[in-house]
Design brief:
By secondary structure, the protein is α/β, with parallel strands linked by helices. It folds into three domains: about 120 residues, OB fold (Dihydrolipoamide Acetyltransferase, E2P); about 260 residues, Alpha-Beta Complex (inorganic pyrophosphatase (n-terminal core)), CATH 3.90.1640.30; about 110 residues, Diaminopimelate Epimerase, Chain A, domain 1, CATH 3.10.310.30. The protein is built from 17 helices and 17 strands. The longest helix is centred in the middle third of the chain and has 34 residues.
Length: about 575
């Protein structure tokens, strides 16, 4: 596949707009919200009071009682090595310390030494710290052996997680997970940090005043972890993210998030979910991918601005190294993809090279699935006998269900696996790659044989040229936060080119003529597309963006795809 082939324009499809009762909005804005399921005025409210009742989440009352019973003991929080796990860990520790729990600490596995979750090997390390209670955050639902090892050592265990549960649950003292069978909590899309926030909120209620308002202080962490984990932005998650963004914008965030925004060059005042997802989260995640997430957690825990800045700069350096590694791996992955039969593409793509970094294969899988519109599994060598894989999926294909089908038909092929709809991790024997490739394709045929892989770009219709203005972009922005399953609005229409040029080696910069006004546009990563000439018209899919430069705000169109309209 060539770069230009990756940017062949997709057919577009206008999002359906159900009937709605939205008032006080311009028709386009009402249409955008209705197409995303917001059809009544009260659904627009993103106040904390509109969160689903925490009491409906199974196990939170028991979890609060268990934690309170260990108030004089030592509590160890065991997190995952990604941004969701880091924010969950920092949230729980900050809350517990504010509640007056004096003996608290954290332990996060090094992915290269211990792998994912509460493994028996990690428990052996935890035992040396003599905790009376282990709280897992963003992991633990699949840690059957690890939880058993902890209980055998006389340690109580509270599992808080959001990943889909296996058939056999760990025998923890309490489990809190909205995705457990028969759990009544209406929002199944909570990230790990959202579950942790619910547990801390239940504990705050149990402890009573003056503790009841403590968890809300850390909604900045909840927003960051929720956006970073790319969970669906249902009403509950939109409330959590919106409230967290509001705290950050009003400078009520932890020193670590403030420092990470500064090193990323992002302004807290006009912060969006995209800033968290594309600027802060990658810097935090880089530590878990290449080194140890402990530095990221310490960055989120410190209240010292100087220390936070130092840790943020360290994360910045690690992320720069990650980007260099990823760039090489992406090129190599594209070489592997070029060997595929483009006339009969498989419903799932499996790639591997022995030299790949196991902490970065998930990013490679993500980039490839965007290009191919197929689920992708990318593997790196974990040891002489094992391969570590990371999968990324596309809307409508539940990746963990695919792996469960592989495991059902080929028991023993997967050494271990876990995940959710859009992302999954697994380990296989080093000589089983071809068998896995065959098995996962078979599983796709069984589960998704009728799935249409033809890529279609969902758009929100056309905009009149007089809507291409800064204040309208600001009104759109105010309807957010945007994210997975609450996508940022994208529009389709004809634009007349005044100028097109290459900037930054890989991007195209445009100036468009809209009713005599000059509108800037940018097409990221599309340098190999042939530039249109001045006066040409293009048909474009674009979104409205606000570009800030030297304190000046102006409208910019981000061009997702475009094609020159042939002259008659």
């Amino acid at each position: 596949m060539t770069e230009s082939e990756a940017f062949e324009p997709r057919p577009t499809r206008q999002r359906a707009c159900p009937s709605h009762q939205l008032t006080g909005l311009e028709p386009v804005l009402a249409r955008v919200l209705a197409a995303r399921g917001v059809v009544r005025d009260e659904q627009r409210e993103l106040a904390l009071s509109r969160l689903s009742p925490i009491s409906q989440l199974g196990g939170v009352v028991e979890a609060a009682a268990l934690i309170e019973a260990h108030r004089t003991g030592r509590i160890l929080v065991v997190g995952d090595f990604d941004a969701d796990g880091a924010t969950s860990t920092a949230l729980v520790l900050r809350c517990l310390r504010d509640f007056g729990f004096a003996d608290t600490d954290f332990l996060v596995p090094n992915r290269f030494e211990f792998g994912y979750g509460l493994s028996p090997e990690l428990v052996a390390v935890a035992v040396r710290r003599e905790p009376s209670l282990i709280i897992t955050v963003d992991n633990g639902i699949s840690s059957v052996a690890g939880v058993a090892a902890a209980r055998d050592a006389g340690i109580d265990v509270l599992v808080t997680d959001h990943h889909l549960p296996p058939e056999s649950l760990p025998e923890a003292n309490v489990i809190v997970n909205p995705n457990l069978v028969d759990d009544r909590y209406p929002s199944k899309a909570l990230a790990g940090v959202g579950v942790a926030f619910a547990v801390m909120s239940a504990l705050a209620r149990a402890l009573g005043e003056p503790h009841t308002r403590v968890p809300a202080r850390y909604l900045d962490l909840v927003a960051l972890g929720t956006v970073a984990d790319v969970v669906p932005l249902d009403q509950n998650n939109r409330i959590l993210v919106s409230q967290g963004l509001s705290r950050i914008s009003s400078r009520q965030c932890c020193a670590g998030i403030s420092a990470l925004l500064e090193v990323a060059g992002r302004d807290k005042q006009d912060l969006t979910a995209n800033d968290l997802g594309f600027a802060v989260a990658p810097r935090l995640n880089a530590a878990g991918r290449l080194e140890d997430m402990s530095v990221g957690i310490r960055c989120l825990l410190t209240d010292d601005a100087a220390e936070a800045r130092e840790l943020a700069e360290s994360l910045q350096s690690i992320n720069a190294e990650r980007r260099e590694i990823e760039a090489v791996m992406q090129e190599e992955a594209l070489e592997e993809v070029s060997k595929l039969d483009v006339n009969a593409p498989a419903p799932c793509v499996v790639v591997h090279r022995a030299s790949w970094h196991q902490g970065v294969v998930g990013l490679v899988a993500s980039r490839l699935k965007e290009r191919l519109n197929r689920p992708v599994f990318a593997f790196a060598t974990e040891s002489e006998n094992r391969l570590k894989g990371s999968g990324r999926s596309i809307p409508g294909v539940h990746l963990r269900e695919v792996l469960a089908e592989v495991d059902r038909v080929h028991p023993g092929l997967l050494v271990k696996f876990g995940g959710h709809a859009m992302a999954a991790g697994l380990t296989i024997a080093s000589d089983s790659l071809d068998d896995f490739d065959t098995a996962v394709v078979d599983a796709m045929h069984v589960l998704y044989d009728d799935y249409r892989f033809d890529p279609v770009w969902d758009v929100d219709g056309e905009l009149e040229h007089d809507a291409l203005r800064l204040d309208f972009a600001e009104q759109l922005d105010a309807l957010g936060p945007w994210g997975r399953q609450f996508q940022e609005p994208e529009f389709e229409g004809r634009l007349k080119v005044r100028e097109g040029r290459i900037v930054g080696e890989r991007h195209l910069k445009f100036q468009f003529d809209a009713n005599g006004e000059c509108i800037d546009g940018i097409a990221f990563g599309q340098v190999r597309m042939p530039l249109p000439s001045p006066g040409d018209e293009v048909n474009a899919v674009y979104r409205l963006d606000i570009n800030e430069w030297r304190s000046r705000r102006q409208l910019q169109l981000v061009i997702e795809q475009w094609s020159t309209i042939a002259s008659c």
